[in-house]
Write a structure and sequence with these properties.
The protein is about 65% helix and about 0% strand. By secondary structure, it is mainly alpha-helical. It is globular and about 55 Å long.
């Protein structure tokens, strides 16, 4: 069993990343409920879902110019700012939502995601508050699993991922995160059993492929890991990633295992 999640995740992020990865592991993108939005905010929803946060931000700001306390517009603005990595602004917006609507699930998830990398304990508290209001929120469960993995609480993380999958069996981020968590916590066979069904799925994101490749490499399936990494990285970066993952795998030796 791994002594700590910090070094393993650091190696994975360093080895496999080809762009910003904050927060680490697979966090689902914003998926606002379109039926709850005004026609203008549906444009913001579509922009968020299609990776156009500047457009979403402009639409949200237009709505807020009419009503500065429009909670739905504030949520879209916070999510757009998060995608733009304007984290302090995003957290201020989500905090305003919570002042208007204490316990707002989406605002709590938004704040938790912003805190994942710098303060996973605080992030976990935010996700738990969201789950207290909406216990079947698969997104909050997946994010809680990430926070727990970052804290080294692998069993609890895996429990959260499994609960998310029980609610949403097709939740790819939760499945990939479960496999990666199993791999870094010394259960490579379970990790491979969890991940093999999704290796060839066409809708994997680059981030999912990176985490999936890490789990495959930890399970000894280097060829499959290389093939996945090669979809997004040039040969030199693939070689660097595999070297880093080999170092990570060495930590599962008896010299690095717990009692």
């Amino acid at each position: 069993m791994w002594r700590s999640i910090n070094l393993p995740l650091l190696v994975i992020l360093t080895a496999c990343s080809f762009g910003p990865r904050t927060p680490p592991l697979n966090v689902p993108p914003p998926a606002p409920p379109l039926s709850n939005a005004t026609p203008s905010l549906r444009v913001a929803d579509a922009a968020l879902q299609n990776g156009a946060p500047l457009m979403a931000l402009e639409v949200a700001d237009q709505a807020l110019a009419r009503n500065g306390n429009d909670r739905e517009a504030l949520l879209r603005k916070g999510e757009a700012l998060s995608m733009l990595k304007r984290n302090e602004e995003a957290e201020a917006v989500f905090t305003k939502v919570l002042a208007l609507d204490p316990g707002n699930t989406r605002a709590l998830i938004g704040i938790g995601r912003l805190r994942l990398s710098r303060d996973p304990s605080s992030a976990a508290e935010s996700f738990l508050k969201a789950l207290a209001r909406d216990p079947r929120n698969a997104t909050a469960l997946n994010d809680l699993g990430i926070a727990r993995d970052l804290l080294g609480e692998h069993d609890a993380a895996q429990d959260a991922y499994r609960k998310a999958l029980a609610i949403a069996p097709d939740d790819l981020p939760a499945r990939v995160n479960l496999g990666l968590s199993l791999a870094v916590s010394g259960h490579p066979k379970e990790a491979l059993d969890t991940l093999r069904p999704v290796v060839s799925m066409p809708d994997l994101t680059p981030r999912m492929r990176q985490d999936l490749a890490a789990a495959l490499a930890l399970g000894g399936e280097d060829d499959a890991a290389r093939a996945l990494l090669a979809k997004d990285l040039d040969p030199e970066r693939v070689a660097e990633a595999m070297t880093g993952l080999a170092v990570l795998r060495s930590y599962s030796s008896p010299a690095h295992s717990g009692p």
